[in-house]
Task: inverse folding
């Protein structure tokens, strides 16, 4: 019985240490990406963003990225995390498809690095940089010749 209890305790500790908590850098980033692709506006997620990053996003207001209605997330994966004294850089991969008239128009795969900072015991997204992006046009582009 002691061996079973010991194995159960070790399994629980290993499992819980690998999970992302909502207040971890990975948890904050995952929540932001998931909510954005579920149609949540940036305004509703501003508690996950630093003032600096929110100001950068404000410049893009009114564009097609205000609410991601036509974009459907396919895959999201955290590749690595590097934290130093209240700042974390999280590298992640995301793929999504843009739909038009319920048909896939293009598919995008992108690798990004998010910088998160700790502010009052809360992780906030401070910057997101693109590393590499690949676009695949599902439908052929029609180019008229003159």
Result:
């Amino acid at each position: 019985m002691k061996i079973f209890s010991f194995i159960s305790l070790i399994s629980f500790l290993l499992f819980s240490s690998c999970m992302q908590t909502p207040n971890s850098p990975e948890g904050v980033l995952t929540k932001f990406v998931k909510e954005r692709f579920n149609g949540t506006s940036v305004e509703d997620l501003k508690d996950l963003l630093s003032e600096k990053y929110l100001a950068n996003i404000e410049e893009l207001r009114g564009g097609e990225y205000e609410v991601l209605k036509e974009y459907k997330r396919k895959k999201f994966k955290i590749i690595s995390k590097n934290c130093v004294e209240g700042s974390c850089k999280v590298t992640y991969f995301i793929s999504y498809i843009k739909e038009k008239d319920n048909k896939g128009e293009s598919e995008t795969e992108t690798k990004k690095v998010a910088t998160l900072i700790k502010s009052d015991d809360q992780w906030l997204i401070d910057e997101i940089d693109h590393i590499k992006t690949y676009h695949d046009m599902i439908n052929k582009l029609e180019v008229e010749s003159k």
